[in-house]
Structure formats: C-alpha cells, structure tokens
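SAMPLE LOG
Freezer: B-3
Tube label: C17
Construct: single chain, 308 aa
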Amino acid sequence: MHFRDFDELLSAVKGKPNRVAVPGANNIEALAALKMADDNGLIQSGLLIGEPAQVRKMAGETGLGLSKFEIIACSDPVKMCEIAAQSVAAGKADFLVKGLVDTKYYMKALLDKELGLVPPGALLSHFVLMRTPRYKKPFGLADAAILIDPDIEQKTQIVRNAVNVMRALGVERPKVSVVCPVEKPNDKIPSTLDAVELARRAREGIIKNAVVEGPYDIYITFSRRLADEKGVKGGSVPGEADIALFDDLDAANSVYKSILFFGEAVRSAAILVGARIPVVLSSRADSPDTKLNSIALACMLRDKNLVD
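STRUCTURE (predicted):
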C-alpha cells in the first residue's frame, strides 16, 4: 500500500487540487470536514448546493472560508443530488461529498444512465478503510451501508469493487477474508457456503487479481496465531487480510460501528465504490476525522481506475 496510516495518506494528497460537489451543503458536519480538508490543502474549489443562508451561517460557524466555493441555491434534496452528479459528469467537479441528503437520492443521481458515472452492469457498494493499533496495516471492510442481504452475484461484485480500491492504493493482489461465524462450511449457515463459492470463483479467475479465502471468523482473519490455535493450517489470508467481506448489512454495519465505538485510536474512511469516480459516503454520526479521511481517500483515488 502507498501509505501505512491516515497521516501518511493526508501527506500524500496534500496540495493536490480537488474540486468537490456537495449536495445538501447546509450541513455543519460536512462543512466542518471541508474546513479540515481545506486546512490540509485538499480543496481547490467546490460547489455547495443547498439553502444559501443556511450554508453561509454554518460555514461561518465552522470557520470555512467561502471564497473558493460557489453556492448553488436549491431546497429540493433530489435536485441537489442531480446537480452534484451532473457537475461531476460535466467535469466541473472531481468527486462528490454527501451532505444533508438521503443516501437513496444520492445513489439515484449517480445511477442516471445518461451521465455515465456508473458503468452498465456495475454495482454500487460501500467500502470502509480502517486502521487500528491491533492490526499491522490498513484494511478494507464491506459492505457496511448499502446492500442489505446480498446474494452470491452481488457479493462477487462487492469483492471486485473492494479489490479495485485496494489495487488502486498499491496492494497488487489483495487478500480477502470472507468472514463468517465459523470456519467450516455448514449447510445450516448459508454464509459459509457463499464463502466456499467466492473462494472458488477467485481460484478460477472469475474474481481476478485477488486471493479469496473462507469461511474464516474474525480471529482467523486477523491473526495467524489464532488461526493455528483453531486448527486452520495453510492459506495466505489468516493474519494478512487486506479486505474483510461480511455476509450482510447486519453483520458488516454492526462490526464497523463496534470497532469505531469501542476501539482505541481507530481511524477510518468511508466511500461508495462501483462508479467511475470516488464518492464520499460518510454517516452523520461519523467523526470529523473520519470525514476528513474520507475526502483524503477520494483525493487519492480520483485519477485511478476503479471499475473493471
């Protein structure tokens, strides 16, 4: 990977000119993140789409200077998202940062076929890059926000999306752990059967440029020692995982938020992947640090090939 932690990521993209489009910019958390990004030299210009009076008031509260931003008056969240997506498609912005708009409107605007931001047949999914002192390197987690109960075809695409991101970040052949409650296939636990199938698809080249193994539980995924203790011999993923794929939204979202809430010194970035451009998709409850990291990650990825 091109960086070992988020401080190195910020250093790598500092000074890189980026133009952002923010639908629902009348959102103090989003503007606070832009202020942090601007202070770190990540923002060249931007479109702030929302209620102008509210945007100006909140920008003042966060200390964000507005001289490099254009405020576009709009009160309809659906229209806000459409304007933002159109601005990226027209080359007026490099990537999107979600403000105070519903995710469903955000995604619908991205999926407008006339804009061509999402290739035909592609699937949008959520990707979190995490760094914790308990693990030796940054790792990806998917899908913690978008796909509720993905089938095997959707899981295949989620893996491809995550692999594309990690390859763009410098991991040539990402190691993917399909995380399940147990490490042995069990007909009564469908996620373990999907894990076996995903591993087969990687071996046969249906999933390219990645090593996929599972079913593995969390311990095996992140610790070679615990894998050995549990009798899991061989494999190149235990203790070396670059990506953790979870079975569904219940599992991924709960694990993601638990790590953030209970973990010490945990840092993260969250984006939407599957489009031709990076799309920042952080939660309203995410810390300003997570939002800043998400913008930095989008900066790193903006000129990369993120689709097959």
